[in-house]
Structures are given as structure tokens and as C-alpha cells.
Amino acid sequence: MSDNFFHTDNRPFIIAGPCSVESREQLTQITALLQATQQVDMIRCGVWKPRTRPGGFEGLGEPALEWIAALRAQYPGLRFCCEVARPEHVELCLRHGIDAVWIGARTSGNPFSVGELAQALHGCDIGVLVKNPIAADINLWQGAIERIMQADVAHVAAIHRGFYLYHDGCPYRNKPLWEAAIELQRRLPGLPIFCDPSHMGGHRRYLQELMATASDLGCNGYMIEVHPHPETALTDGDQQVDVAGLVALLASLEAHQHADSVEMRLNTLRQQIDAIDERLIQAMGERMEISRKIAHLKMTDHLEAYQPQRWNELLRQRLSTAQSIGLDPHFVRKLYEAIHEESIRTQEEVMGNAGVH
Ligand code: PEP
Ligand code: MN
What is the mean pLDDT of the segment spanning 55-72? Predict the structure, then answer.
């Protein structure tokens, strides 16, 4: 299944480029800058942009493919990839000699669309990258990849770009759920898996830590959004870096990979702990906010803040979850006693304050 199409010796395969092609000048400029780094294997550039809500910039379409074709001729060592969502997109990409296409997260979750794309791509000698669907359904991701593989596409790879979960308390735009990429690797051994830290993080400040984790988990390469002037980008401005930013990220990735000093490893792990603690505190705040709402409802029904039956059931459920993931039940009990005590104290405070007025 694996070949050398998405492979570079001695370092991860790097796909970099703007979220969207915005003009011929922007594409020409970013291509020249990325080429000059000599660290980029493939340029990414969105030509048709799937926007979550109407009204935004939807890409420049076919004219942008002509500019890409001209740049390919100018830089023979460089390859280009674009997102495709419909068979017409595939036909146009093939006609313009685009080297690889990717199926975006809003398309890969739709088996009808993937089926149509697979048909259009049948027997193609180009690369096809399949992003994970927005929904955290690994079967859907695997299914999309299988549909493309069954169409005898020569070079297939997956892109892990994180999953959208409603109010997950995660600081990132999309939750990585690293275990999903690990499981995909287990199910489809040999399939190259790339990490897209840009769409995962949603902000350039998170790229470094996400790339470090992906690297520790053995990812084969990265797809990173790079714009000549991210602050003016028409799409995904916050998460794009400029070329200097990309070079710094790649240097830090290399340092991470070669860091055998305990201190550097500790720092990476501590960054992860810090991010988790932020989420824990955030989640506690949200939990106490809900406790306050519960206090108001209990008051209307003249209920006590402390409800032993609910507490016993809650503890039972938490202990059972804890057990299923191998967490020490004594620890989880102590933790929940503290949380519950604070929740009751908060509710009594609300009730007391209401009584005073
Ligand atoms: C993109 O790569 O610009 C894009 C739209 O990504 P995703 O499908 O992962 O949201
Ligand atoms: Mn984007």
C-alpha cells in the first residue's frame, strides 16, 4: 500500500501553502518563498472552498488551476495539491496536471460524495489525501479511504485534522482525538498519515505543540497552512503562519525529534499537562455555572441542595467510567467528593442569597 509518492528520506513529508488561492500574485509569491526554504515537498492551495456558512470567500476555481499549472512548469521539482469536492473538480484538476488532491472534512463524511469522487479518480496516477470527517466516526474515515483505494488510485494517504465536538472545552478548533489516528494506523497499516495542525488548532499558537505530539505518535508528515501575510488572509487567517513561521516550526519539530535531553521531553509533556489543566479548570467553571441553574430550579420545587440518591448514582457512574479506563477508584472518589461538596456549597449559597432578598 505504501510507496514513495508521499515520502521524503530522513525527514517528514511537508505539504504547505495557503488555505485559499486569493490571487495570482499571492500564489506566485508564496510558491517562490516556500520553494526557497527547500523544506517543502508539495504546495497546498484551496481553489474551491467549502464554507460552513454562506457569504464568505468560496475560492477562485478554474483560473487558479491555470496559475498552478504555470508554476509547476516554472518549478519542476515542486508538486501541488488542491481540495476536490465534486467529480467536476477532479476532472479540472486532472486536466491541469495537479499532482494530488485532498478530500476535505466536509466531504469525506458523505459516502455518496466520496463514491462519486472515487469514480472520477478511478485508476488515477495522482495522489489522493483523505481528511478525517468532521464527525468523530473512524468507520466513516476508514470507509472513505477504502472507497478511494478500491478505485485503484495509485497513491493514497490520510490526513488527521481533528474532530469538531460541540463545546468540548478543548482550546483547539477541533479536538485531536489522537487515539483515532492511532486506530486508523492499526486498521490500515502502511497507509501514510499526515497531521494538519492548522485546522486542528485553529490558531497558529497551537501548531508547535500539536506537531510535537503528532511526531511522537509517528505521523508521516504535515499539511500546514502558510500565507505570505496571514493577517490579511481571506480564509482561516488566525491559523496560518508566514514562511518564517513555517521555518521556525520545522526547526522546532526537528529539535523535538532529536531532543534526547530529559529537560526537553519534560517541557513537551508539561505543555500537554498545562493544556489539559486549562481544560479541567474551564470545565469546572462550566459545571459550577450549571449547579447555580440547578439551585434555582430546586428552589422553585422547595428541594434541598443535597440529593443523596442523585449523588449515589452520579458517583456510581463516574466510578464505573473510571474503572473502564483504569483510573484508581479511590482517587476518583476523593475527586468527586471535593467537586460535589463545592457544588452543594455553591447551590446553598445561591439559595441563601435568594432567601435574603
Ligand atoms: C482546508 O484544508 O482548507 C480545509 C477546508 O480543511 P478541512 O476540510 O480539514 O476543514
Ligand atoms: Mn483552511
Answer: 97
Per cent of the chain over pLDDT 70 is: 98
Domain 263-353 has CATH 1.10.340.30: no
46 CB within 6 A, ligand 1: yes
Closest ligand 1 atom to 44 CA: 2
Mutation choice for ligand 1 from 15, 19, 107, 159, CB with most ligand atoms inside 8 A: 19
Output phi, psi for 245, to 5 deg: -60, -40
DSSP-assigned letters across all residues of 273-290: HHHHHHHHHHHHHHHHHH
234 — phi, psi (to 5°)? -80, -20
Q: With 60 as the cut, is the pLDDT of residue 1 above it?
A: no
Indicate the pLDDT class of residue 214, thresholds 50, 70 and 90.
Answer: very high
Mean pLDDT calculated for residue range 336-354: 95
Q: Where are the alpha helices (DSSP H) in 259-328?
A: 262-300, 308-324
pLDDT tier, 261 (very low <50, low <70, confident <90, very high otherwise):
low
Q: What does the alpha-carbon distance between residue 82 and residue 62 come to, in Å, rounded to a whole number? A: 11
Q: Say which CATH architecture domain 13-259 belongs to.
A: Alpha-Beta Barrel (3.20)
Grid coordinates in use for 175?
A: 479536538
Residue 226: φ, ψ to 5°:
-130, 130
The x, y and z cell numbers of residue 13, run together, are 513529508
- Where do the domains of the chain lie? 13-259, 263-353
Confidence class for position 269, pLDDT limits 50, 70, 90 = confident
